Amino acid sequence: MAVQFGHIAGYPTGSPFKNREELRIAGLHSQNMAGISGNAKTGADAIVVSGGYVDDADYGEIIIYTGHGGRDPNTGRQIRDQELIDSGNAALVRSELEGLPVRVIRGRHNKRHHQSPFAPSSGYRYDGLYRVESHWAKMGVDGFRVWQFRLVKLKDGEVSTPKDTSPASIDQYAVGPAPVTTSIMQRIVRNSMIAHIVKSWYSHECQVCGLAIQVEGGLYSEGAHIRGLGQPHHGPDVPENLLCLCPNDHVRFDNGAIYLTDELHVMDALTGQAVGQLRVHKNHKIDLRHVAYHRECWTKD
Predict the structure, then answer these.
(1) Which H/E stretch holds residue 12?
(2) Coil, helix or strand at residue 26
(3) Could you tell me which residue ranges the YDG domain spans (predicted)?
(4) Which of 53, 87, 165, 276 has its CA 20 to 30 A from that of 214?
């Protein structure tokens, strides 16, 4: 079955289903057993949230979803580390990187772990489209490494018609300006002045590579939080938790391709080797607790 993103015609948000087979036949989720529908190449188009993992957390419009793998099918507990290369986990990462919508289907929660007030009392329910905002690793409740994904619900109008990922001719797509819709989203309010102060210390030069990007309006850099804001990280919006990075190193840092030691060596996650020393201005007091938290999200050390 081709991966298909967005709503499925004929099944509005709130549509109920008796079982996984009905979901599969309707085209909302391609798997009868696995929680993640999709693949690493094209992305994840749907997930089932049913409380199967003890580390899951469902806040309604925000879901902390534990990835696939390492679970004992009989007890539901983790018995080994999860891997990001597993197709389901890698599919969710691809959806995050490409900004692809994910259909969320909630199932009745068993009493093995915890009950969610947002779960249906029986069967399954399609609960709309979410975006994968971020992902990280952590030591789970059962003592094994798990990958987790923060999903945030999309408002009506943020995603229009479904898109099939099969190859298509450019002639199929309409010519003209993209449609514009009005929507309201809940976002964490960041203090722009804090980022401005940190960037000014470095004259917009990246603390990792030293690059300062020149654009028409002047120099450009990005403020990168070491410990993420919002659930479940709850990092503070303060200079001690902020870095001045170029866009490339910001993406690499946020996705675990590079991380920092307590000595502020910049480490390459693939090789495990130091690739440089973080540049630190005399006024910039980086909190090593946030550095350690970020590192633990991406390494087993």
Answers:
(1) none
(2) helix
(3) 6-153
(4) 276
Q: Of 243, 270, 245, which Cα lies nearest the Cα of 258? A: 270
Structural domain boundaries of the chain?
A: 4-172, 192-296
CB 102 within 8 Å of CB 129: yes
- Determine the pLDDT at residue 27: 95
Other beta carbons within 10 angstroms of residue 215's beta carbon come to 7
Would you identify the CATH topology of the domain 4-172? Answer: PUA domain-like (2.30.280)
Identify residue 65 by its one-letter amino acid code.
Answer: Y
Query: With a cut of 50, which residues of the chain have pLDDT below it?
Result: 160-170, 173, 181-189
The pLDDT assigned to 167 comes to 43
User: By C-alpha distance, which of 255, 251, 272, 274 is closest to 263?
Assistant: 274
This prediction's pTM:
0.70
Q: Reduced to 3 states, what is the DSSP secondary structure of residue 196?
A: helix
Q: Tokens at residue 272, please? A: 């495990």
Of 24, 53, 20, 47, the residue nearest 123 (C-alpha): 20
Q: What is the number of other CB atoms lying within 10 angstroms of the CB of residue 240?
A: 16
pLDDT value of position 211: 95
In the chain, the N- to C-terminal Cα span, in Å, equals: 39
Tell me the two tokens of residue 168. 């298509």
The DSSP secondary structure of 96-140, one letter per residue, reads HHHT-EEEEEEEPPPSSS---TTS-SSSEEEEEEEEEEEEEEEE-
Phi/psi class of residue 210: alpha, beta or left (left: φ > 0; alpha: ψ in -120 to 50)?
A: left
